[in-house]
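Sequence in, structure out.
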Amino acid sequence: MIKFLSKKNFIPEILIVLFPIALISGPLVPEIFVLIINIFFLITIIINKDYKFLNDKLIYIISIFVLYVTSLSFFSDYSDQIFLKNVFYFRFILFILAIYYFLNKNSKFIYLIFYSLIIMFVFLIVDGFYQFAYDKNLFGYPKFRSDRISSFFEDKLVLGSFISRYFFIIIALYFYLRNKFNDIIILPVILLSFILIVLTGERSALFLTIIGLIVIFILLDIKFLSKIIIILLAAIILSVSFKINSTLYDRYINQTKSQISFSKNLDLSSFFDRFKYYKLSWNTAFNGFKENKIFGQGPKSFKYFCSQPKFVTYSSKESFKNNNIQYLEIHKKFINVKITEIFFELGDVIENNNLLLKYQFKNKDYEFYSNKKGKINFINVSKGNFINSGHKLFSLNLTDFDIPEKSYFFRNGCTTHPHQLYLQLMSETGLIGTIYIFSIFLFIIYLFTKHLIAKIFFKSVLYNNTKLCILTYFFLLLFPMTTFGNFFNNWFIMSFSLQLGLLLYFFIDKKNENK
C-alpha cells in the first residue's frame, strides 16, 4: 500500500489517510493532525511558489463564509466569550486546501483513503454490534442509554451520524476506484453500516440516510435492478428491526410521536410548539434572530445569550426537584464510576459542599460534594458499588431545616446550541449567513434537477456517480428538515473537512471529469 504514497509528501498524505480514524478518538488527535498537515502544506506551496490552484470559485465560497464568521465574532456583543474560539477557523480552510492540494499532486493515495474508511467502518460495525448485543463495547464502555449505542464515542451519541456522514463518501470513492476487489467488499460494508445506523437509535441519522438512498436511487447511473435491491434491503432491515426489537420501535416511532404535535389548532405564531422536545431552545434561537436579523448574535454565542431575559423561553408547565434526595450529580460521560470511599453514615447531618464520597473513573480519582442539606435517613450506596450520574445516594429528613421537600421551577431552552442548523445560523449569523448556506443547498438541488432533466430527456449524464454521491452528502448535510449538531463545533467541522477536500478535488480538476 505504501506504493500509493509519494516520498516527497509522505507525512501529510499518511495523516490525511488516517484522519477519519483519528476522529473516533475525540478532538485532540485530529487537531494535531490538522496542525501538522497545514504546516507541511504551507511550507510546500511557499517553497514551490505554487499558488495557482487557489484561483477557484469553490475556494472563494468557503473562504468568504469563514471570513464572515470570524468578523461576526469580533463585532458580536459576546466577543469576549467567542472571538478567541472562532478566530482560528482559517486553519480549517488550510486543511481543506491541503487535502485538495496533496490529492492533486498524488491522486493515487485516494486508494488508501478509501481503504482507511472501509477499515474504520468495519471497526465501528464490529464494536457497535457488540455493544448492542452485550450492553458494552469491546473496550468495556457501557451503553449510555438503553435505546442508544455509541461505541467509542461514549456519552457523545453520534455513532449513527458519524457513520451516515461517511456513508455516501465511501459509495462515491467506490464508484471512482471500482474494481473486482472493491465490488466484493462494498455491499456487506454498506449493508452492515445501514443496520448499525438503525441500531444506534439516532433518528436524524436514519432519516437522512434514507433520504440519501432515495436521491441516489433516482440519480445514479446504475442498473435499475440494483436500485430496487438497495431500496428493498433497506425496507426489510427497517421492518425486521422494528418487528423484533421493541426498544427500537419505541425509539423511532413512539418517541417521535410523543415529541411532535400534529394539532390543527397550532398556528404559525406557535409553530415551535409542535416540537415538544426542542421547542424551548428553538424559540430561544428565534428570539436571538429577531433581535439582530441581519448579523445574528455571533457564532458559538447561543449558550451565552440564551439565558438572558430578552431571549430566554420558559416552559408553560412547572417542573420540580426533590430537596429530600441527594443524587450523584457528575458529568454524564462518567459511566459506571466505582465508589472508593464514603464519608457519611445513617443519621449524619450534611450541609452544602460537604465531601460525601470519592469515586474512580478510568483509573482516576474524583471527589463529590453535597448540594443538599438535611439529616440522612436512608442510604442507597456502598463502597465498591458501580453507579452512574443521577444515582440516588440517600434520602434526607428535612423536618428541622425549614426546607420544602420539593422546589418548583420553569425549564428554559438554554443549551450549548439550538440543535437545528438553520435556527443556529439565523440566531448566530443572521440572514446573511443563513442565506449564504441555504443558497448552497438550493444550488445542489438545481444541479440534481439539471442532471435529471438531461438524463431523462436528452439521455446524457452531466455528473458521474462519484460526483453525485458527494453532492448527495452535502445535500443531506444542509438538509433543513431535521435536528442537527453544533455547526461551529471544531470536531464537527473537522469531520466534514475531508469531504470538502474531496469536493474540491472532484469538481475543480477536469482530469476527474470522465472517470
